[in-house]
Amino acid sequence: MLASPSTAQVRDLSDLAAKVIDAVVNIQTSRNAVVDPNSEAQSQPPEGEQPRPQRSLGSGFVIDASGIIVTNEHVIRGAEEIYVILNDGTRMPAELLGEDRYIDVAVLRVQPTTPLPVVKFADSDQIRVGEPVMAIGNPSGLGGTVTAGIVSAKNRDIRTSPFDNFIQTDAAINRGNSGGPLFNMAGDVIGINTLGLTPSGGSIGLNFAVPANTAQPIIAQLREFGETRRGWLGVYLQDLTSEIAEALRLNPPRGVLVSGVDPRGPAVPAGMRAGDVIVKFNGQEIDDARQLQRIVAEAPVGTTVPVTVARDGRNTELTVTLTRREAPASGTTAVSALGMQVSSITPELRSQLQLPRDARGVVVAAVDPSSQAGRHGIRPGTVILEVHNEAVDSPGDFVRRVEELKTEGRHSVVILVLAANGQTRIIALNLA
Predict the structure, then answer these.
(1) If DSSP codes are grouped into helix, strand and coil, which group holds residue 35?
(2) How far is CA 61 from CA 66, 140, 182, 221, 270, in A?
(3) Cis before 252? omega within 30
(4) How far apart are CA 417 and CA 188, in angstroms?
(5) CA–CA separation, 397 vs 386, rounded Å?
(6) Which 3-state string (H, E, C) describes 174-206?
(7) pLDDT tens digits, one per residue of 350-389
(8) Which residues of 37-51 are buried (b: 16+ CB within 10 A; e: fewer)?
(9) Cα–Cα distance, 208 to 217 (Å, whole number)
């Protein structure tokens, strides 16, 4: 008798799971509990007793037989102890080699007594929507759990970072799966399972993985340097509209508009200026701002690349040597047009303002009381979440967004703020 299609598929998945499962590991972390005296959900430990450690679980996979393991950054964030548990139950302490919050990748090292089974990365650019995939992980502490599905979509931007280009899959990714591998049918890793969108905590088929091609250069940098060293162009960007393209005599519309140039960045000595439209970067056609951000960030620091810009209706060839992308400034960045100075949310500010761990935005560090912002009740400590319906996660994001709106000819801007009392409100400010 001929096997039914479903039986044949199960047999293929069984073989695949057996081939790779020993390279998938469970991650266990512990950190000291932080007790909030203002929280009703927590109680203070008895006098003289230390807070009980908080434990969390995640997944990972081995990429080097000597003991190099990849997982998500959020799996090990804040951990004081990290342990790796192999499929056979062996438990080993792990050392954190490096982490990157933007891409949500971390690299660990263990010291095995014998070489570990490994898996290798695939070229994630070659995957196709509808292609079957398999995930293995540690949901709810149930290690070695296999789920399967298809690639639902590619290049998904769900605005978790400036570099989002997730693989979307309907393979179940539940809590504890984070950091585990998403396999193609050849048994190679096409992505790192990162999160699922769910109202209930269980998988509803909207799950996302960091593509292998996005993760690999970051992993290499974390292994070599212990940190990420991203390329930086030093420009503010906005997507090109048909109206702006017509005004710039760019037909057909293509590329990304440079709305401003950071005087400290490498674009200045290269001759780039506001009003240029970047149509090609290092030989690759440019479609939108987020694509260019990813390409630049993935390029090694010090790389000299050709850049084609459209200027005055003609193409101009420039050469840019990328410098290092700096971390978001912990100090303040002046935005004089709005009468405020803003800063990144540092750990100190997060604690001082009692912000939740996942709080995003920028903090108002100073405000001119005679400005519109001051008259509307914005005070130092106010958190700005969005500028004109776009999230801002750093002072640079805030400045860029304000400058974009000015370039568009807008006379006012709407900002979403989080006040000290925990309430959000919308405020309109003049841009003049």
Answers:
(1) coil
(2) 13, 17, 10, 18, 42
(3) yes
(4) 44
(5) 10
(6) CCCCCCCEEECCCCCEEEEEEEECCCCCCCCCC
(7) 777 778 777 788 888 777 766 788 788 788 788 999 888 8
(8) eeeeeeeeeeeeeee
(9) 19
What is the distance between the alpha carbons of residues 361 and 357, in angstroms, rounded to a whole number?
Answer: 12
Write out the catalytic residue numbers: 74, 104, 178
Closest CA to 360 of 165, 175, 159, 198: 159
How many helices (H) does the chain have, and how many strands (E)? 9, 28
d(CA 249, CA 171) in angstroms, rounded, equals: 46
Give the CA-trace dihedral at 403, 407, 413, 414, to 10 degrees. -80
| Cβ neighbour number for residue 185 with a 10 Å cutoff | 15
Residue 122, strand partner residues: none
Model confidence pLDDT, tens digit, residues 45-99: 555 555 566 677 899 999 999 999 999 999 998 899 999 999 999 999 999 999 9
Sequential DSSP letters for 198-246: -SSSS--S-EEEEEHHHHHHHHHHHHHHSS--BEE--EEEEEPPHHHHH
DSSP 52: P
Q: Structure pTM?
A: 0.68
